[in-house]
Write a structure and sequence with these properties.
Rossmann fold; single chain; about 20% strand; globular; 19 helices
Length: about 475
């Protein structure tokens, strides 16, 4: 072989090697961001390559996506990274919706980054499951039957991603996501980043502050899900129902009709436990009449799936009509649910890996027996985790955390999913913290949008100023019958 040919092959080999993607590779391009109202703003679309599983030297690389809204400040602070809840929510999709004005407002402080966590949104791969439930409508549904179906679906989805797409599902846990944020910080050339989070996003924030304490400038935790809060306490759910019952009783209109909401719920549950209802409704897909069985499990599931959200406003009507023998709405909901997609592999892996301490497991089992919803709120966990084979992150991950990072906790008094007590439990480890409590606020949007004072407090906090209003009252829930 001639020397020229050898040199040529060496050059080609070097080019090929250099062309291989590398962890830490950041790409940014101009991007016109458009929200749900067709409003447009100039931004940047970014992607970052990171290892799928950092414990495996031969790990695949995955692509994380984000949109960066440049700061309007003369001297911007550390970038603010938004972390969606779920797990499974998309930061980019969130920015398109009702919180878009808040994303724009925070640019007065720093760059604002709508981040899609691994396995979600525009990040690749997006680990959606295409499997659908197929629960029979003419058989009274039970938790055991639903779990059996979900286990089969979970096994199918896990096999698709693991065996066919060659995804290392064990890399999808909160610690890896925390390290993703550290890699993002480094790639952006930022000394620190601030975190703006909600629900599961707060769970990820705790892990990030534990693993990379010097990298976090400030953190906003709305709807706190602490390291050992993945599985919810029945006592918290029962307390929420009691608080909700008090609010319903005080309502000048609905309270006259439903003075005892908890008693109404129990009477409907007892009725269905003794004799399930068969309801004939029109199938919206086939336009044909179908019979749907509604029992106690169905009603408990509907409440648990929507409790502590804006859907709470419909609860009085749901149970009042049921007490009169009208189960049309629950039948419609169950018909839809019995055919729904099972969700995201990312979501299952994250929750199964986060797990629960033995003490919390025992407490949940003990408390469930004396509450209206028992342990339906945690359905279908942990029953489906065996199919996902998610390595447990251990009690060290779930241990209390102490940090000097300044934190702003935001909680709503009618948020059953992440109650005020969650924030207070972990706030003891954050000496530089402030807690905004919103009277009457439920989960999700109301934790940010139920009063303009919330945005004012967030801006004050991010600028390092004292938060003026820590007690805020949201507009009353508008119940209907």
């Amino acid at each position: 072989m001639s020397i020229y040919k050898c040199v040529f092959l060496i050059i080609i080999s070097a080019v090929t090697i250099n062309a291989q993607p590398k962890a830490g590779t950041l790409k940014l391009k101009p991007y016109t961001f458009e929200n749900d109202k067709k409003e447009k703003v100039d931004a940047e679309f970014g992607t970052l390559l990171v290892p799928e599983n950092r414990s495996n030297p031969q790990s695949n690389l995955i692509e994380l996506a984000f949109v960066r809204f440049k700061s309007t400040a003369k001297n911007p602070g550390p970038p603010i990274v938004y972390l969606a809840g779920g797990p499974g929510g998309s930061g980019i999709f969130t920015a398109k919706g009702s919180r878009f004005p808040l994303f724009m407002a925070l640019r007065d402080v720093a760059d604002v980054i709508a981040f899609d966590q691994r396995g979600t949104g525009y990040s690749k791969p997006n680990l959606g499951c295409f499997d659908r439930l197929s629960l029979p409508l003419d058989v009274a549904p039970t938790r055991e039957a639903a779990i059996k179906e979900l286990r089969e679906n979970s096994q199918s989805c896990a096999s698709y991603w693991r065996d066919i797409q060659r995804v290392d599902l064990t890399g999808y846990n909160t610690n890896e996501s925390a390290d993703d944020l550290e890699d993002l910080r480094k790639a952006l050339g930022a000394n620190q980043i601030s975190l703006w989070t909600i629900s599961y996003g707060t769970h990820l924030a705790f892990a990030t502050m534990r693993r990379h304490p010097k990298s976090i400038h400030r953190a906003i935790l709305a709807g706190t899900e602490g390291p050992d809060h993945t599985y919810k306490l029945p006592s918290n759910i029962q307390k929420h129902l009691e608080d909700l019952a008090a609010v319903i009783k005080a309502d000048p209109e609905v309270g006259k009709v439903i003075p005892d909401f908890l008693g109404l719920m129990k009477s409907v549950f007892d009725r269905l436990d003794a004799q399930p209802e068969t309801v004939e409704i029109t199938d919206p897909q086939t336009k044909l009449k179908v019979k749907v069985i509604v029992n106690k499990f169905v009603m408990q599931y509907i409440v648990a799936n929507n409790i502590g959200t804006t859907v709470t406003a419909s609860f009085p009507a749901l149970f009042y009509r049921a007490s009169k023998g009208d189960f049309t709405n629950p039948a419609q909901v169950w018909l839809s649910q019995s055919r729904s997609e099972i969700g995201s592999a990312m979501s299952y892996m994250m929750d199964c890996a986060s797990g629960q301490t033995g003490a919390r497991r025992e407490r949940i089992a003990r408390e469930a027996k004396g509450t209206l919803l028992e342990d339906i709120f945690n359905f279908p966990f942990p029953d489906v985790c065996e199919e996902w084979k998610a390595p447990d992150l251990g009690d060290e991950f779930r241990a209390p955390l102490r940090s000097d990072v300044p934190v702003l906790f935001i909680s709503g008094t009618l948020d059953a999913r992440t109650p005020v007590s969650n924030a207070e439990e972990y706030r003891t480890g954050f000496p530089n913290s402030t807690h905004i409590i919103i009277e009457g606020a439920v989960h999700s949007d109301p934790l940010f949008l139920s009063s303009p004072k919330i945005k004012e407090g967030m801006m004050e906090f991010l600028r390092g100023q004292p938060v003026t209003n820590t007690k805020i009252t949201a507009a009353p829930i508008k119940f209907v019958l």
